[in-house]
DNA sequence: CCATTAAATGGCC
DNA sequence: GGCCATTTAATGG
């Protein structure tokens, strides 16, 4: 957890339960709360001009959601959409500021979290600009394993993404992802077992 | 069992 | 590589 639940509670936090596909906030909304995921998975996305989904980032238990905007005076540039049933705790922007004021040690944690996101974004941008679909997919898979997998052994990490999600993340079409992953399977870069991807 | 959703295929540009 | 149509799982009520 980025910030201790009990501490958030002391600053008047409320907890909400979300069903899959529900929306926490939308593009253009004004940030009013600090959100933190108690459990569940959510995604930050954008629907492009062709009505196609672009996944900007995936967030999981313990992560906060677009916290960096609370220090700015801007609107949300993305939608936050629930993927799996989620429990999310939130406190108002004002209470968040109060909390940071009285808890300098939290400021550092938040800074660190934002720095990690920044770091990830640079890696992602670097990867996604490759002219080769295979490179985009491979590096995205490696990225996920580094981020979520404890075991570094080959084929030990079950990629928690559908082909479609992988396509929306890499900016490719689902058919391309399917075909590329099969090739990577043949090349022993990964293994497909019961349609699941292991890397 | 049926409906829904995801994955896989093949043809074509 | 993308687009489209179609088929083939897998999932859940």
Low-pLDDT ranges:
none
Gap from first CA to last CA: 26 Å
Number of strands: 9
* Proportion of strand residues: 15-25%
Average pLDDT over all residues: 95
| Major sheet | 4 strands, antiparallel
Q: What overall form do the CA principal axes indicate?
A: elongated
Compact overview of the structure:
The chain is α+β, with helices and mostly antiparallel strands and 199 residues long. The protein contains 6 helices and 9 strands, in the order H-E-E-E-E-E-E-E-H-H-H-H-H-E-E.
What does this structure look like?
With 199 residues, the protein is of the alpha+beta class. Helices cover 39% and strands 23% of the residues. It contains 6 helices and 9 strands. The protein has helices at 5-10, 93-102, 104-128, 133-148, 163-170, 174-186; strands spanning 14-18, 23-25, 33-39, 42-47, 53-59, 79-82, 86-92, 191-193, 196-198. The strands form 3 sheets. Strands 2-6-4-5 form a 4-stranded antiparallel beta sheet. Strands 1-7-3 form a 3-stranded antiparallel beta sheet. Strands 8-9 form a two-stranded antiparallel sheet. A hairpin with a 5-residue loop joins strand 4 (42-47) and strand 5 (53-59). Helix 2 crosses helix 3 (104-128) and helix 4 (133-148) packs across helix 6 (174-186). The mean pLDDT is 95. The chain binds a DNA duplex (13 and 13 nucleotides) through residues 133, 162-164, 172-176, 178-179, 182, 194-195.
